[in-house]
């Protein structure tokens, strides 16, 4: 009896379950989307610290400290909770799972958005899977990064905006107001995670005001919207709270109101929003459009079809809103002027999300068009055609898995760890290691904090030594007998003040001083003063045997992996340049540049800055050997991965080949990108002087002096230029100033001769 009763109850439960699942197929589809996305992300998630900002976030997490501005407080707070509740694997793996979870939820939200605006399950499936397995979003959602959570908030805000519009038009004011308050709260939360959400919020605000501004902004709603928004950004209180604890890792130390403000506004970091020269905008736009081919291989055309047909197949208001949001999310990135100069493709992922929505709309539009076209055929044929297209549009995004899986797989990525360990293993006891590269500093700092590797080593970022929370200010302010003759950048002053009595190591190729003695140590260079015992000689062939470059199956290596693999050889080439062994340097640079450019799928992230410097010094070495034709043939290849790459090495080669027009063109672009480089103005002024354009020469030389008043050579040429223009008083003044400020220089001697000869 009991068994029969139990069986009847079981059958009844199963029957109810079947009815509910049948009535709600969308729940099954959403669950399937989540499972597919999440499982594939788990298998490709990073198990250890990766490049870029991962080490920064992980260091802040394990110390309950602060990461780089604007601080990402919501990310760090929620991450702390998640890592505690998910006690499986290493800390980097848990953080990667956190990213994977929110990425998978985001794809489910995309399905819900498409279902709401297009009423098509096919479009929802196509859009969610297309975005899930697009290159950038997938690669950035399996590592310790904030982008998955940011994408989640943007998708959620879009969904809430569409829901609010539906409630308002249905005269359900109370529900609409509650939805709007929730939207305001989510907007605040999104800004406490990532500032790029601000551009999505602006687009949503335009949509809401255009739909029914009276319903949105009124005496009752406005104060509550502000209150809920402020509640959303409350996580920023975490920053000073964490700083007060005195954590081992405390980027920016936002423990005072001013420091907190500086931290939130990214005062200590590279910036340049809306400061990009418009003349270069077409190249960035073209790069963005080309990136769609790798983001959505085999079906990117559907996105453009969806964009065009969205104004016919869905509400025009929705179509216009999506287009506006796309522009708001893409254009600011294009106009962002950052030091690394490249178009940082991983900042485009919100715009890629909108494009995925268009892919979904395009899939449904094509299916509907073919259904109408086969209206005269038999019913069975129509159904077969519809089923075939559904399979195609479902399988096309899944085909991205085959294309991208091996390229985004971080499960065995230990390149950053190997790079950091290589530096620690080859560094002397109690050494100072000077780093100016996020891909090197952050992983090394995380390993030092989390695993207590080489706590005796001091990792120094020269550009940040004066910023709160960073090491090295004492090294910069140290009093030494040589202080009077020490000038230059923070990097130079730190080296000059310390390397005579402290082991100083160097992992930065952006500066070479031939008064230093360079000793290659594999992943770094040891610096010593001239006169120190000569370093052990190293041949390039021996170095290539010790640190071989892969020749096969390298298309799966991204930019950061290639940087880590090449790093010892980059240091070797810097060693050769520092010692004036340019032939050997060229041999190494040839191999490095060929390896970096070969079979590259997507150029992205900070490593492109490293390789921009590689090509810069490659050009320097070639110019030093008078191989000018090779400079203008090889060095511009850097523009394949950095469209903004402009260098005075190319302009110098053009100048030496008497190609003044090309030299000026290169310098004009260089100055647009680096408008405070005194040497560039000096070079351009010299070319104008050579071709007889004294007016432009004087303007450039004057600008060079304003930027570098201590350059007496430039001041001397400026004086001569003024004399050529007939401005004798001003010219005499400049020549006399050279004599006064640098009386023993060659320029002062020439100035005296000119003044005596001209009786001036």
Structure description:
This protein is mostly helical. Helices cover 65% and strands 2% of the residues. A five-stranded mixed beta sheet has the order 2-1-3-5-4, sandwiched between helices. The longest helix is centred in the middle third of the chain and has 30 residues.
**First-to-last CA distance:** 124 Å
Helix content percent band: 55-70%
Write down the Rg. Answer: 30 Å
Return the average pLDDT rounded to an integer. 88
Strand order of the largest sheet: 2-1-3-5-4
The helix count comes to 34
Name the poorly predicted regions.
1-23
Into which percentage range does the β-strand content fall? Answer: under 5%
Query: How would the global form be characterised?
Result: globular
Report the major sheet.
Answer: 5 strands, mixed
Secondary-structure-derived class: mainly alpha
Count of the domains: 3
> Based on DSSP secondary structure assignment, what is the total number of beta strands?
5
Kindly summarize this structure in a few lines:
The protein is mostly helical and 760 residues long.
């Amino acid at each position: 009896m009991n068994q029969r009763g139990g069986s009847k109850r079981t059958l009844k439960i199963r029957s109810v379950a079947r009815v509910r699942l049948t009535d709600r197929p969308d729940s099954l589809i959403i669950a399937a989307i989540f499972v597919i996305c999440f499982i594939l992300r788990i298998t490709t998630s990073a198990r250890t610290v990766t490049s870029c900002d991962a080490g920064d976030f992980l260091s802040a997490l394990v110390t309950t400290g602060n990461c780089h501005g604007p601080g990402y407080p919501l990310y760090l707070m929620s991450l702390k909770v998640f890592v505690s509740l998910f006690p499986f694997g290493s800390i980097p793996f848990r953080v990667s799972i956190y990213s994977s979870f929110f990425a998978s939820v985001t794809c489910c939200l995309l399905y819900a958005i498409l279902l709401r605006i297009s009423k098509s399950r096919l479009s929802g499936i196509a859009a969610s899977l297309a975005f899930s397995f697009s290159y950038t979003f997938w690669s950035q959602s399996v590592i310790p990064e904030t982008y998955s959570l940011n994408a989640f908030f943007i998708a959620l805000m879009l969904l809430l905006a569409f829901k609010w519009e539906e409630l308002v038009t249905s005269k359900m004011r109370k529900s609409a107001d509650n939805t709007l308050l929730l939207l305001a709260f989510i907007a605040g939360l999104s800004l406490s995670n990532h500032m790029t959400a601000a551009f999505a919020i602006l687009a949503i605000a335009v949509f809401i005001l255009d739909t029914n501004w009276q319903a949105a902004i009124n005496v009752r709603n406005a104060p509550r919207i502000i209150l809920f928004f402020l509640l959303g950004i409350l996580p920023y209180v975490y920053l000073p709270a964490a700083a007060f604890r005195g954590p081992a890792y405390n980027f920016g130390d936002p423990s005072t109101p001013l420091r907190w403000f500086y931290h939130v506004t990214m005062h200590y970091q590279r910036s340049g929003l809306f400061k990009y020269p418009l003349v270069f905008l077409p190249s960035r736009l073209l790069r963005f459009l080309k990136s769609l081919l790798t983001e959505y291989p085999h079906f990117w055309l559907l996105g453009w079809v969806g964009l065009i047909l969205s104004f016919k197949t869905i509400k025009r208001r929705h179509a216009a809103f999506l287009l506006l949001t796309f522009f708001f999310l893409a254009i600011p990135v294009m106009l962002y002027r950052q030091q690394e100069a490249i178009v940082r493709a991983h900042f485009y992922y919100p715009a890629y999300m909108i494009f995925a929505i268009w892919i979904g709309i395009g899939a449904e539009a094509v299916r509907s068009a073919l259904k109408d076209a086969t209206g005269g055929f038999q019913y069975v044929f129509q159904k077969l055609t519809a089923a075939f297209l559904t399979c195609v549009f479902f399988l096309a995004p899944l085909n991205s898995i085959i294309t991208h899986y091996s390229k985004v797989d971080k499960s065995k990525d230990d390149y950053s760890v190997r790079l950091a360990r290589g530096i620690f293993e080859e560094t002397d006891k109690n050494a100072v290691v000077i780093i100016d590269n996020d891909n090197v500093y952050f992983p090394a700092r995380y390993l030092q904090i989390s695993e207590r590797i080489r706590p005796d080593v001091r990792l120094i970022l020269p550009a940040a030594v004066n910023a709160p929370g960073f090491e090295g200010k004492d090294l910069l302010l140290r009093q030494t007998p040589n202080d009077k003759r020490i000038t230059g950048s923070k990097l130079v002053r730190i080296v000059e003040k310390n390397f005579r009595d402290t082991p100083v190591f160097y992992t930065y190729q952006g500066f070479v001083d031939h008064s230093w003695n360079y000793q290659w140590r594999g992943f770094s260079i040891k610096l010593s003063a001239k006169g120190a015992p000569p370093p052990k000689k190293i041949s390039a062939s021996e170095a290539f045997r010790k640190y071989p470059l892969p020749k096969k199956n390298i298309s799966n290596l991204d930019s950061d992996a290639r940087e880590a693999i090449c790093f010892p050889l980059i240091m070797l080439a810097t060693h050769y340049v520092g010692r004036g062994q340019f032939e050997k340097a060229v041999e190494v640079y040839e191999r490095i540049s060929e390896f970096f450019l070969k079979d590259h799928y997507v150029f992205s992230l900070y490593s492109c800055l490293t390789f921009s410097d590689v090509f810069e010094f490659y050009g320097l070495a070639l110019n030093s050997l008078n191989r000018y034709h090779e400079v203008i043939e090889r060095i511009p290849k850097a523009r394949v991965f950095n469209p903004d790459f402009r260098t005075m090495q190319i302009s110098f080669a053009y100048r030496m080949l008497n190609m003044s027009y090309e030299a000026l063109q290169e310098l004009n672009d260089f100055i647009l990108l680096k408008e405070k480089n005194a040497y560039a103005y000096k070079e351009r002024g010299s070319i104008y002087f050579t071709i007889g354009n004294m007016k432009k020469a004087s303007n450039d030389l004057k600008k060079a002096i304003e930027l570098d008043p201590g350059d007496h050579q430039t001041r001397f040429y400026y004086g001569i230029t003024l004399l050529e223009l007939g401005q004798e008083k001003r010219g005499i003044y400049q020549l006399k100033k050279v004599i006064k400020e640098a009386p023993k220089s060659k320029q002062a001697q020439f100035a005296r001769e000119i003044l005596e000869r001209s009786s001036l």
